Amino acid sequence: MLDELKSLKEQLLFQEKFEHGYFKNIVIAGMGGSGIAGSIFSEIYDESPVEVVSDYTIPAYVNSDTLFIAISYSGNTEETISAYREAERRGAQTAAITSGGTLGKICRKSLIIPGGLQPRSALGYMLVPLISSLMHDHSKDLKEASKVVENIDSMNDRIKEEAAVLVKAKKLPVIMGFKPFKSVAYRWQTQFNENSKLLAFSASFPELDHNQIMALESSYGKENLAFYYFSGASGKVKERIKFTIDLTGIEAKQIPVEGSSRIAQIMHLVHYGDYFTYYAALERNIEPREVTTIEKLKKLLSQF
Amino acid sequence: MLDELKSLKEQLLFQEKFEHGYFKNIVIAGMGGSGIAGSIFSEIYDESPVEVVSDYTIPAYVNSDTLFIAISYSGNTEETISAYREAERRGAQTAAITSGGTLGKICRKSLIIPGGLQPRSALGYMLVPLISSLMHDHSKDLKEASKVVENIDSMNDRIKEEAAVLVKAKKLPVIMGFKPFKSVAYRWQTQFNENSKLLAFSASFPELDHNQIMALESSYGKENLAFYYFSGASGKVKERIKFTIDLTGIEAKQIPVEGSSRIAQIMHLVHYGDYFTYYAALERNIEPREVTTIEKLKKLLSQF
Q1: How many separate helices (H) and strands (E) can be counted in chain A?
Q2: Contacts of B221 in chain A (CB under 8 A)
Q3: Which residues contact B236 (CB under 8 A, 6 or more apart)?
Q4: Tell me, what's the pLDDT at A145?
Q5: What is the distance, to the nearest Å, from the Cα of residue B142 to the centroid of all Cα atoms in its chain?
Q6: Hey, is the C-beta of A287 within 8 angstroms of any chain B C-beta?
Q7: I need a surface site. Which of A156, A250, A281, A287 has the fewest CB within 10 A?
Q8: Residue B303's pLDDT is what?
Q9: How far apart are CA A219 and CA A223, in angstroms?
């Protein structure tokens, strides 16, 4: 698993792109560790509408004006394949990012990425081609991102300690994000699920100030939860975080962001969470790579 | 509060529409109890891309091809007003749904809805104009929706009992949705937050089968959570719900859906949650209407 984590710095320098023509909107289909590449991309790209679909079906508006990108690391995710076939039928411009599998076969324009990793450990291979193919040159930012994640690879004792504190207290994490780190908060949630086999939850400012704040103040059970938020907010959102903590009296730990570009900051926080959830697994004596129940479920569904 | 809940059946027969011209995409800005109208709408409308913005800023693609709809029940939500002003500057076609306030003044094309309710109790007034103005005639479905919510108004002892079970066990709810009830799961979450002052969480099939399922099986702390899912799934998603519960051994309670049209089913589940969270508040001896901390936060922010 550590080898997989340490491959992210190289993944961020991945050079491959996919070709595309003119489009009016983008739909990205992907589930779990593959879908998160689409969600992170949709937070940094906003030149046209982007919808991330994590389901079997696609919206009615998908047609020849749509650039449809299927992302499945294995290439065998049934929801993504189903969505891809529907997009083809609708005449959408299609592309795929995959290490092979069925998707690699049926999509003529597949961008084939290196295989052999857990999908959630291959985020760089799935995210970088989206950025390189659809945004202005961000190679400088991606180099910076590679640098900041390498720094975490070489120094993460503090993260290990924080993970141990969480697990020893038997608390479940709640990660509070804000734009452009909403998807990062969700990434942490899913990494806690898969790596640490822990339930975890995410929310975002300023939305949570319109509902969750009422519960943060006086819900029972909040003593069983550990709250985390990211540094790096500015303006009103920064004030909101401060006031929300003050007014509700929750204990919330700040996760420090590093890097100057948005992409580097995002990848720093992603990788911080990768290590946090990896160490939380070790602290629980749990194998972080193991996802037997997901495999069992796939087998059951294939018989259906 | 009961009066507010019972007004939903009339809200669903609300006849007002807003005018609009040709557009290529829709952006809806709204926070909390107002934003949820946009989220529910985006799950049933898919003729063009819809993005729901719950933030101060709007995506770069917003221009004269965009129909921008600001929803703020009070008309004074700072994020929504900020997003609205930006959309005006970009030359978007703008509309607003509000009971008045600043938004009612600055938006020439405001659809003014009846005031005096808690925003979260005015969902019908905010959702129905979106449906009536942007979709083919759904008056039959809205009538059916009005009927099914009225049925809940007149018979909800079972919901009261279920709420008492949750609160007595001091568990926090996790609501599992699926399309087109993903936003309903989130609505329940926020109603637990505001009405019952309870932390609550939501997730959706099939996405959760790619991550959360690992934690459902072996996370510590799951004994402090109560899992709920909606009936009415079909095909693969139905199988997934069954297999997920079987494989992980969680105790998950089914919330029955009623109604034949999608809109009626959605509103049935919404209203079920309205009562569930209302009764959970009473069981905790908490005033469901009270949202003092949100008011305090607004005051603090206005000084900033």
Answers
A1: 13, 9
A2: 170-172, 198-199, 224
A3: A56, A78, A301, A304, B206
A4: 98
A5: 16
A6: no
A7: A287
A8: 84
A9: 9
